[in-house]
Specification:
With 264 residues, the protein is α/β, with parallel strands linked by helices. It is built from 13 helices and 9 strands. It is globular, with a radius of gyration of 17 Å.
Length: 264
């Protein structure tokens, strides 16, 4: 068992990791994350708040269902793809979608990467970069590529500012021409009024949101909006009642979304 100290936004990665491990242990699990189970078993950390945070855990599993499916489909069409996982935290998606060919780059703050390295020994095709998402030099570390690029930004945008979002998108748009972006976004109404217990206990605060990913076309980074996938699509698989609830426009719009943008 390893003990560590972490707070603020980086601490949220521990809570989301626990949510995936907890779901994976259920007999009727909707996702299965063997790595998450393994890592959590070696952590000396108080998971009690995450254990009781129903809203957080449901959201994490819903977005995992959606993102895993999208990434697997993308890789099946682009088997030599480069995947850039911004704000990777303790994400273990590579181990669930790897086809034996893809190159995968995990990017996060040094404090996060230091903890990640204590629990994960990555294979050769996974490169870990200890830099802020707003530091343009991470693109130099990834290097240029003629392969299709998939960028994943999960569980980050809602903690940033408008300036930060523009900086990240401009870095991506300036360095990769054939790129698909998947970014989790939050409704402004949720940013202002909703708190998740385990997230709030980490002193992390929601600060940014948009009504639709189409708004990102105005950021001048060359991307075109493709679609918004409401997390209610993942909730349908967790809770059958959402097959009815998700038809209500207000509910769909209030839920977090996976915004899909493309530049080619």
């Amino acid at each position: 068992m390893e003990k560590f100290d972490i707070t603020g936004v980086p601490e949220t990665m521990i809570q989301t990791l626990y949510a995936r491990a907890k779901e994976s242990k259920k007999p009727d699990h909707k996702i299965y994350d063997e790595k998450a189970i393994e890592i959590v078993s070696h952590m000396d950390y108080d998971f009690s708040k995450a254990d009781k945070d129903f809203a957080m855990s449901s959201g994490v599993i819903s977005r995992t269902i959606i993102l895993d499916r999208f990434v697997k489909n993308y890789i099946s069409r682009n088997p030599d793809a480069v995947v850039i996982n911004i704000a990777c935290g303790m994400d273990t998606r590579f181990y669930r979608v790897d086809n034996g060919k893809i190159r995968w780059f995990n990017i996060d703050l040094p404090v996060t990467i230091n903890i990640r390295k204590r629990f994960l020994s990555e294979p050769d095709r996974v490169v870990t970069i200890a830099k802020s998402a707003m530091d343009s030099t991470w693109a130099d570390d990834v290097g240029s590529t003629d392969s299709p690029v998939l960028v994943i930004i999960e569980g980050l945008s809602m903690y940033l500012s408008d300036k930060d979002i523009k900086q990240i998108l401009n870095i991506i748009g300036s360095n990769y021409r054939n790129v698909t972006l998947l970014m989790e976004t939050m409704s402004p109404a949720v940013v202002k009024k909703v708190k998740e217990k385990s997230i709030d206990a980490s002193n992390a605060k929601f600060t940014w949101g948009i009504k639709s990913g189409k708004e990102l076309e105005n950021y001048g980074i060359g991307f075109r909006f493709a679609e918004d996938i409401s997390l209610t699509e993942g909730m349908k698989e967790l809770y059958p009642i959402y097959k009815i609830i998700s038809k209500i426009g207000f509910i769909r719009n209030l839920s977090n979304k996976i915004t899909v943008m493309r530049r080619s």
